[in-house]
Write a structure and sequence with these properties.
The protein is of the alpha/beta class. The protein has twelve helices and 15 strands.
Length: 360
């Protein structure tokens, strides 16, 4: 049996080895050209990372592929190839909500690739501050969850910052209940970020109603606490479990099996059009009849689709609101540009947060 198996596998493995030899030669050729690109960018003081260019490369390769690799496989492979090439040009630092093991860190690596230097921050506020101060070139922040809705602190900080959104990623969120022992023996409380507790509340009520629930700054912080205290269970993902040496007591405990969190990448450089873009903005209107209709009417007239509409109190004590809106298209696209020009005339306040490649 083993002899027959090996005899049939041997020629296939030899073919794979030959293909791998070709691939490594081509990858090194590609890296050498990327270094030349880096020299040109350096001469013109151009940014190393261009999200719209990377999106175009991936989309083109996906359209060329005839299988068996799926589109998401091509995306994952080429993000790592481009990330490795970028790291040859310059080491890029990205701030994320820490500590190590958070979903924010996972989103950072899925978007920028593994060849990125992460800067864990204790709060979303600190992520913004790190990028504004130049301690990191980019930041990764959550903006909304499919179960719990908008991340209010991120929306509030967008009002105060000069940073722009340069990209987005919708990350599937898989919550596990983690302990040192791999079971709940001796466990007295469950720690997690407040949103994670909310996303798992029905499961927790049905399966662990006797355990105290404690909100902490992040799921990774909960995992760190659980790693030091056998009476604590943490809600966190696989990355946190591996980093802190925890065992999965119960897997996939989120109430919504399709639970996802949308993250955006913030920085100082605006993204150019990629052909598949989105524009985010904040507006407010005068408190008078028909004001909101008059504000949004130009979008319909210019054929611009609105994909998100979120309201937040202005905290001015006058019952005024800011509206967070996502539009299909880039601000440089003619229909979007025309609609935004009219919005600016009609809005009491308008701030464009960025135009950037949409998550596919």
């Amino acid at each position: 049996m083993d002899d027959e198996l090996n005899s049939r596998l041997k020629p296939l493995r030899e073919r794979i080895d030959a293909i791998d030899a070709q691939l490594i030669a081509l990858l090194n050729q590609r890296a050498a050209v990327a270094l030349e690109v880096g020299e040109v960018k350096k001469h013109f003081n151009a940014p190393v990372f261009r999200p719209e260019r990377e999106q175009q490369v991936i989309a083109r390769l996906q359209s060329m592929s005839e299988g068996p690799l799926a589109a998401e496989h091509i995306s994952a492979i080429w993000r790592e190839i481009m990330a490795a090439s970028r790291s040859l040009e310059k080491s890029i630092k990205t701030a994320f909500l820490g500590p190590v093991g958070t979903y924010s860190e996972q989103a950072m690596h899925e978007y920028f690739g593994q060849s990125i230097e992460g800067l864990p921050c204790p709060s979303i506020d600190e992520v913004f501050r790190a990028v504004e101060a130049g301690a990191a070139e980019f930041g990764v922040v959550p903006v909304e969850n499919s179960t719990e809705g908008a991340v209010s602190r991120t929306l509030d900080l967008f009002l105060q910052t000069q940073l722009v959104i340069g990209g987005e990623l919708a990350l599937p969120i898989h919550h596990n209940l983690l302990t040192l022992s791999g079971n709940l023996t001796g466990v007295k409380r469950i720690c997690a970020h407040a949103q994670a507790l909310a996303q798992c509340q029905h499961w927790l009520t049905a399966n662990a109603p006797h355990l105290e629930r404690q909100a902490v700054s992040s799921n990774a912080e909960a995992a760190r606490i659980a790693a030091e205290d056998p009476t604590v269970a943490a809600i966190a993902g696989d990355r946190a479990a591996a980093h802190y040496g925890l065992q999965v007591a119960y897997a996939l405990i989120q109430d919504d099996p399709h639970n996802r969190t949308r993250f955006v990448m913030i920085g100082k450089e605006p993204a150019a059009p990629s052909g598949y873009d989105q524009t985010s903005l904040i507006v407010s209107v005068k408190n008078e009849p028909g004001a909101m209709f008059r504000l949004l009417e130009p979008l319909a007239r210019h054929g611009v689709s609105m994909t998100r509409f979120e309201s937040r109190p202005a905290r001015s004590g006058t019952w005024a609101y800011y509206f967070y809106i996502d539009l299909e298209g880039h601000r440089d696209d003619a229909p979007v540009a025309a609609a935004l020009a009219e919005l600016e005339q009609k809005a009491a306040f308008l701030k464009i947060l960025g135009s950037y490649p949409r998550s596919r």
